[in-house]
Amino acid sequence: MADLPAHMRPERSFQGLILALQRYWADYGCVILQPYDMEVGAGTFHPATTLRALGPKPWNAAYVQPSRRPKDGRYGENPNRLQHYYQFQVILKPNPPDLQELYLKSLYAIGIDPALHDIRFVEDDWESPTLGAWGLGWECWCDGMEVSQFTYFQQVAGFECAPVSGELTYGLERLAMYVQGVERVYDLNFNGRDGAQKVSYGDVFLQAEQEYSRHNFEHADTDMLFEQFKMAEAACRKYLAAGWSTESEVKRHLMALPAYDQCIKASHVFNLLDARGVISVTERQSYILRVRELAKACGEAWLATEAGGLA
Amino acid sequence: MPDLLIELFSEEIPARMQPRAAEDLRKLVTDRLVAAGLVYEGAKAFATPRRLALTVQGVPARQPDVKEERKGPRVGAPAGAIGGFLKAAGLASIDQATVQPDKKGDFYVAVIDKKGRAAIDVIGEIVPEVVRNFPWPKAMRWGEAKPGALSWVRPLHAMIATFGPDTEEPEIVRFEIGGIASGDATRGHRFLAPEPIKVRRFDDYVAKLEKAKVVLDPERRKHIILTEARTLAFAQGFELVEDEGLLTEVAGLVEWPVVLMGAFDAAFLAIPAEVIRATIRNNQKCFVLRDPQAAKLVNRFILVANTEAKDGGKAIVAGNERVIRARLSDAKFFYDTDLKVKLEDRLDKFKGIVFHEKLGTQADRIARIEKLAAELAPMVGADKAKAQRAARLCKADLLTEMVGEFPEVQGLMGRYYAEAQGEDEAVAHAIEDHYKPQGPTDLVPADPVSIAVALADKLDMLVGFWAQDDKPTSSRDPYGLRRAALGAIRIVLDNQLRLQLRTIFVQELSHHLVQRAMPDDKWPVGHRELSVIHQGAQLRELVAKELLEFFADRLKVQLREQGARYDLVDAVFALERQDDVLLIVHRVNALGNFLNTEDGVNLLAGYRRAANILKIEERKDGEGAFNEPANPELMSHPLERHLWNTIQSTRDEVLDHVSLAEERIGRPGFEDQKPFEEAMESLSTLRTAVDAFFEEVTVNVDEKPIRENRLRLLNEIRAATRAVADFSCIEG
User: Fold this and answer.
1) What's the pLDDT score for residue B217?
2) Is the pLDDT confidence value at B620 over 80?
3) Å from A108 to nearest chain B CA?
4) Which CATH architecture group holds B581-729?
5) N or C: which terminus of chain B has fewer CB atoms within 10 Å of its end residue's CB?
6) Is B315 on the interface with A (CB under 8 A)?
7) Mean pLDDT of the B257-267 span
8) Phi-psi region of B360 (alpha: psi -120 to 50; beta: other; left: phi over 0)
9) Which helix (H) or strand (E) holds B339?
10) pLDDT of residue B532
């Protein structure tokens, strides 16, 4: 790290932090992917996690995933809450026995010194009702701040995970605020430069937060969204049905990934409708269930593909 | 005798599971030791975030030798049966078996000497069995997770198992679970002493862990945290707001507690204190402090770190302060945002929120509570309009950001927001108090408006679930209906309220579609033929009665906890139309006092004598054969006439007292009067007349009319006592 120019250091810039994490996990042997090109609520939705967690094949990957949580928008007025933020996601299957140590070393790599800081693993069981997934693990605390989620996947898309994947999710903005010593997310130094050359997180995202908050809470076209939900659901089922094929008595699926895209789509549309407050509590449950059914069917299809372990 | 040491070393065990897990480990291992004939002297278990440990002292080195008897076939049984027996018992010939007589004849019995095994071998089987079947509330698999792999609360990394007397080097109890072999090594603190440590037995284990910055005993960690927190607070002139639950949790999050103090901007003290505490406690697991003079929170907090930082904890405190600042500014943001919307303007949303599938939306429920609160208001001395207003707003805070974030401040935030929008003080307090009392130590609402809303909230829920025939069972009470009924009872009793619950229930049931699946023969006689409308009314009466019985059961529990006899509650409930909890309790108390007096005991004896004779004679003459009044014309014996006279005057007197009681109890100015006691006292004047009657007069005489008349007289005794209680329910 010492050989890095100042503006590239993880404690100086948001992008420096991302680069440090990528370098660390690349060095471990992960494939460094780019974000999935669809709107998702969390890095877990990326097929590189959801689908790759299923089946027997080893898989080590890391990537940044922009995540959208329409309900968390605060019109840019809250110093900590965003409707769009970045997660850094690591998935290791099977989880190596020293995953906790590996995680801690990644913190050292971004400048968090355990001789100075109080790092703790605090119980946090993870569950995604829409993905039909759950796991056990912790929130990782640094001086009382949750900086990551650490999960051993037990089930995804309704299927038992064997081998078990270890999933690490770093909340990048929080982590950056911590290492940069900044109180307001918009004050983060994005590019590590000073003076006129400095670009802040606010320069990049404040306007977006304001505009999307308006959109998410007030103007998102609910008629269209209801329609889109139905269309995505129907398309997902259509692709799933069309993808099954039997070759020499082996059932294979040939379109698990395109079908799963529609499941992601339905999930995000549901989140938007939820933020608009047009889904009642009872309906909410049934929408979640509908997405889960899609996720399960996609998981089943994935397991009948080569990457899903089918010989 | 040898000692056993076990340590199960894993990734971080959830704090809330640690105490139970330590206890389970102790019990599961020691129960199996005892079952295997290894009776030990003592055992103790411990938990830290990364380990469960167990020490068992004084375990015998070997199981005792035992003789086992094995019963075989009858003497003279076919050769095949005898051969099979010899094989199973391991005997060479039938001469080695003894012969024992039985009821049916002589049998062969094989006496087998079973040598005890070395304890270490037995333990080597017990521990893996316990580990494999450990009752974690939630367990997981990890890594390859092959079929049959071990499940543990989090990945398990190492196991210590040593066994031996303290005079020698102990042995390792050898076993392997899920690819992990038992050994004699552990690790210290994750950051301060991560190297492996070799241990022999419990003594050096504890000492070496302590050197490696791990305090094994959770009680000691709690003690360290509490003492240091108090000291730190005291040094600054503050006082720790103690919190046992938080203390236990925090002790489960650290192996090496280091207590530090931090501060936040005093401007945040404008946020309600309960919210500050909830934020700091729930999210940050930190303690808050108060100024002992002003009895107010101060802008300081206590945090418990798990490490000794090389800068003395400066960075840790600064980090925690930043998080708490962010949390409090979130809370402040919620608070300020919430204040922008009036409580009544939130109500529309309740139309879209289902309270319960069968009981409609939250809006429906609020409408019912509002109506009921208005009806109850005059009965509890509350202003009707205020009760109605409070009921309408009482749930509105559920839709605020603050309650969404911290559910435990529900009600309380409602009060703050009501005050802020200028609601009447009684209304604001009723919003806060309407959930109360929640538990046995919770305060009972005392202001009339609060009472009306708190009762309406509880009674509506009870009536609603009873209408759906969705009642709690002994193991299931997901809606807290027992607590609701007990809460209503406590409100009534603490405030000396007079309420006719049956009438209220029947009235409330009319807001519900009452459903009851019941076999035909359970319907009251003649009921099946009634029209639908009448069935509705009848059904409501029936459901009201069931709910009243539930109240009676809760009341019994409550009174028994206060030391009252529950058979007395039965004796009072057995009377007609007992639905006024306050009257019931007054009556029960008076009855209890009365039965403790000599008069009471004797009268009960006299009653029983009369009732027994009546029971026998009614068996001959038929139920109700002596229900007619006695005829004084037929009374020949002076003591017979005396008893009759006494009954007449006593009965009137008792009834006067009882109606006075019903009229006055719970009303203003009643405090010093004890009309039920007086009723009982009047009743006791019967005693001498009854005693004298039984002494001198024979009931079952030959002259039929006189016998019948005397039995009628006995029935009048029985009837007179029913003015206060059904004495037949009294036990002892």
Assistant:
1) 98
2) yes
3) 12
4) Orthogonal Bundle (1.10)
5) C
6) yes
7) 97
8) left
9) helix B314-339
10) 43
Burial class (CB in 10 A: 0-12, 13-18, 19+), A207: exposed
The pLDDT, as a whole number, for residue B235 is 96
Minimum-distance CB partner of A136 among B154, B191, B353? B154
CATH code, A58: 3.30.930.10
pLDDT band at B533 (very low <50, low <70, confident <90, very high): very low
Confidence at B107, pLDDT banded by 50, 70, 90 = confident
CATH class of the structural domain B3-62+118-211:
alpha beta
Q: CA torsion angle for B491, B496, B498, B503 (degrees, to 10)?
A: 20
| Segments of chain A scoring below 70 in pLDDT | 1-2, 280-282
For residue B341, list chain A residues with Cβ-Cβ distance below 8 A. none
Contacts of B630 (CB under 8 A, 6+ apart): B644, B709, B710, B712, B713, B715, B716
Q: Nearest residue on chain B to A100, judged by CA atoms?
A: B11
Does the beta-carbon distance from A178 to B319 stay under 8 Å?
A: yes
Residues of B in contact with A117 (CB under 8 A): 307, 309, 315-316, 319
Tokens of B490: 């406590």
CB contact under 8 A, A77 and B333: yes
Q: Is the CB of B401 inside 8 Å of chain A's CB atoms?
A: no
B434 pLDDT above the threshold of 50: yes
- By residue range, what is the domain housing residue A50? 6-216
CATH of domain B356-563: 1.10.3210
Q: How confident is the model at residue B406 (pLDDT cuts 50, 70, 90)?
A: confident
- CB pair distance less than 8 Å for A97 and B141: no
What is the C-alpha separation between B351 and B725, in angstroms, rounded? 48
CA-to-CA distance for A262 and A241, rounded, in angstroms? 13
Residue among B114, B113, B121 nearest B2 (CA): B121
User: Tokens in use for B583?
Assistant: 């009257």
Residue A1: predicted pLDDT: 53
- Assembly ipTM: 0.94
Shared domain check, A180 and A46? yes
